[in-house]
Amino acid sequence: MSSKVEEVSESKTIQINNINPILESLGYKLFQEIGEGSFSKVFLAKYISKRRQLDLACKMVDANAGPNNFTTKFLPRELKILVQLKHPHIIHTYSIFKVKSKWLIFMQYAKNGDVFEYMLKNGALDEDLARYWFRQLSLALQYLHKLGITHRDLKCENALISEKYNVKLSDFSFARYTFDNKGAPALSNTFCGSFPYISPEIIRGRLYDPKCADVWALGVLLFIMLNKSLPYSESNMKKLYEKQMKQDWHFRSKRAPLLSEEVKYLVRRMLTPKCSIRLDIDSVVSSDWVMKDSNIKMLAPDEQKALDEAIILRSDESYIQSSTCPMTARKKVKVDGAQMSKVQIFPRTWTECSYSFCLPSRRPLGLPLDPTRTTVIVELPDTDSSHEARQFLGMAI
Ligand SMILES: Nc1ncnc2c1ncn2[C@@H]1O[C@H](COP(=O)(O)OP(=O)(O)OP(=O)(O)O)[C@@H](O)[C@H]1O
Question: Which candidate in 55, 114, 128, 153 is catalytic?
Fold first, then answer.
């Protein structure tokens, strides 16, 4: 993945040349494509203001491109969850815009690819690096579970590597809440995830606890980091299930003598077929192997803050309500007497939502959209004229 900023080539400009003028009036600009998902394209992007310049990644999702349940279920959930997340080991979402049918998700740019690519170049990880990255992913997952959110697609490709070689969890396209509209636990029945990481309870096809399935996937991820191979290479679902149930897997013979007993034990306990005796994420985080490095025994202040915030938020009634309110809800807000109904904004709770727009107005254009602030979702006017966009935002903010 190249980190050099290039103007987009002729062929790539087709879909972004209509959007760039609108974005530029807000300080954002799209550059070359750096990745592609099932229904998305990811571009290198920049945010430029008088105060700062940031390299970003922009995931462009066409709401009309996917199947019906993608547009009505998975995408709205992903957007709602993205704006709620704030954790040092999760790719941060700065701003989300909607232009016509396209959603533009501006997020932190991971300069050094993902863990899968890293292993292709560098081989299996030594235990110290594996522990360092695994701990970061585990803390990210612990934070999600405390918020009542499950990721459901943990894999090496979704563990992105930042400029400073820290790992950040990304891709929340399968994520969902683990509670219902009364805050009570809710199980899953969707068959989702990536094949090698799928747990036996998902294969079984009944209701399953998605948090428990996340721990399984994280166990597979740890196995892969240590071995550069899969615990199960079966492509037949029935055989895979049988092997999973018998715990029929082995560390690679070349790697096994190099690995500590603590890490072998941890992998075994995460790949335990029975959910009720599989470790939960709290036990993973405090496992002997993770705790072995005295430098990272304690949570750093930003890790602790995120965890504390998640616990407080999960107990907040308005958080539960905002997570279940429909995505199409529009909040009408008045700024200096001007009614704005075109703005959709989904920060952590509705309370914050009204707060951020009830700040004294006549703030410089773009301030509520500044990526250093709470993520906002703004639906831009259906136009490709930057003048009209500016006029709209000038009126709105
Ligand atoms: N924040 C980011 N920084 C750098 N590269 C990224 C970032 N987010 C995504 N990418 C790149 O873009 C690719 C596509 O990402 P995206 O999350 O859209 O889909 P995916 O996970 O590959 O697929 P799917 O849509 O099937 O889940 C990734 O594989 C990655 O290489």
Answer: 153
